[in-house]
Amino acid sequence: MADHVKKGPWTADEDSLLSHYVTLHSKGHWNSVAHFTGLKRTGKSCRLRWLNYLRPNVRRGNITLQEQLLILQLHSRWGNRSWSKIAQFLPGRTDNEIKNYWRTRVQKHAKQLKCDVNSQRFRDTMRLVWIPHLVERIAATSGQSLPACTETSTSTPTISESTLDDNSVNVDVSASCSDTSDWGDGFEAGWWEGDEVESSFESLWIEENIHFLQQLFD
DNA sequence: AAGATACGCAACCGCTGCGGA
DNA sequence: CTCCGCAGCGGTTGCGTATCT
């Protein structure tokens, strides 16, 4: 008999109970967490709530240009099966958030262009048009020239095939990160901190781009 | 002002892989 | 070797809010 498992949105009291418990006892063993906190939630639900909302350093709000760039590049490399992997390179962002971003924004614009989001055509559009454009915008909003690709600012920033493997990612986002050879701890103290980047948020999917691409395809 | 529609996000569901008994 | 329970993941759904008519 199901013991009245509660579903739906979490209340502030539930959040407080859960975060208090996890702070004291550390995470893991989520079924135990659910049991000992007295929450009428499943372990899965507790885990999800913690990861997506309660854990420290969760970043909320607009996806920045730099984050958009990373998502596009990493997704083009890894596809839909790696949201959590992509999330690892966007500290503070959850796989759920990235997945939502992709589904609501990117797929929407693929639809506008009347092509499948998984099609070669859409991927080429990403690679050849949107990503370079995004790199330019990042450079413009940060007021910097592009250190490593100044003379080829319209060239395609790509994930380096030669250096990319399951454990090391080397993405050319030189517009925002001059050194991408090590995206470990150093990366975590990176570009997203600071109001300038946050306030400079603007959509990659500006109307002029969409219009241009539609013409290109027609 | 009110209803319809679109959008964004939080949360749930079902599947998979792993580790322990 | 097999079974079982659990954590983790991607896909999907549903609800609240914003925007449009």
Polypeptide structure, described:
The chain has 218 residues and is mainly α. It has 2 domains: 43 residues, Arc Repressor Mutant, subunit A (Orthogonal Bundle); 153 residues. 53% of the residues lie in helices and 0% in strands. The protein has 10 helices and no strands. The radius of gyration is 20 Å and the shape is elongated. It binds a DNA duplex (21 and 21 nucleotides) through α3 and α6.
Number of H- or I-type helical stretches: 10
Please tell me what the overall shape is.
elongated
- Uncertain residue ranges: 145-203
The total number of structural domains is: 2
Helix and strand content put the structural class at: mainly alpha
Overall pLDDT: 70
Residue fraction in strands: under 5%
First-last Cα distance = 59 Å
Query: Major sheet, described briefly?
Result: none
Helical amount: 40-55%
- How many extended strands? 0
Order of helices and strands: HHHHHHHHHH
CA radius of gyration is 20 Å
